[in-house]
Amino acid sequence: MTLMKIDPFWDIQEWNSVFDHLYRNHEMRVLKDLPLNNWSPTGDISETTTEITFTVELPGFEKDEIDIALNKNVLSISGERKFKENEKRDFHSIERSYGKFLRNFNLPSTVNSKKIDAALKNGVLTIHLPKIKKTEPRQIHVSVS
C-alpha cells in the first residue's frame, strides 16, 4: 500500500487562486468602466491681515493643465488628470484619482481681484488673494475763521 500525502488546504488554496484571478480581472474591468470625474484635490485656506491664501495639492499637474477663474466673488479652480493606459502593464490597484475636477470658493468682498496671483511648485498650487486696504478713519481738524 502506497501512502499519499494529502494537503487538506489544497482545494482552498486553488480556489483562492481562481477567485483572486477573477477578482483582479473584474476589478480592472470595473475600474476602467468607472466615470473618472468624482474627485476633488485637497487644500488649505489661510488668512492674514493682508491676504487670503489657497494652497491646493495637484501632484503631477503642469501649469497649463489648471484653470483658475474669478467670476463675481467666486474663485474656480479646475483641471483634469487623464488616465494613461499602457497595453504592456496590468494594474493590480489604481488608487490615484483621475478625471476632471472643479473647486469653487466664495470670496469676501475685501479681496482685491486685480492683484490675485498663482504659482505652481512641486505639485502645490498657491493662490494669493490680497485684501483691499481699509481706509483708516482720521480726524479732520476744523479751523475757526
Key traits:
three-stranded antiparallel sheet; elongated; 1 helix; alpha+beta; Immunoglobulin-like; four-stranded antiparallel sheet; 145 residues
List the helices and strands and how they pair.
Layout: H1 10-33, E1 43-47, E2 51-57, E3 66-71, E4 74-81, E5 99-106, E6 117-121, E7 124-130
Antiparallel strand pairs: 1-2, 2-7, 3-4, 4-5, 6-7
CATH level 3 topology of the domain at 39-81 and 95-130 = Immunoglobulin-like
Overall structural class, as computed from helix and strand content, comes to alpha+beta
- Overall geometry comes to elongated
Beta-strand share of residues: 25-35%
Report the helical percentage: 10-25%
Tally of DSSP helical segments: 1
Radius of gyration: 28 Å
- Spatial strand sequence of the major β-sheet: 1-2-7-6
The N- to C-terminal Cα distance equals 133 Å
Short description:
The protein is of the alpha+beta class and 145 residues long.
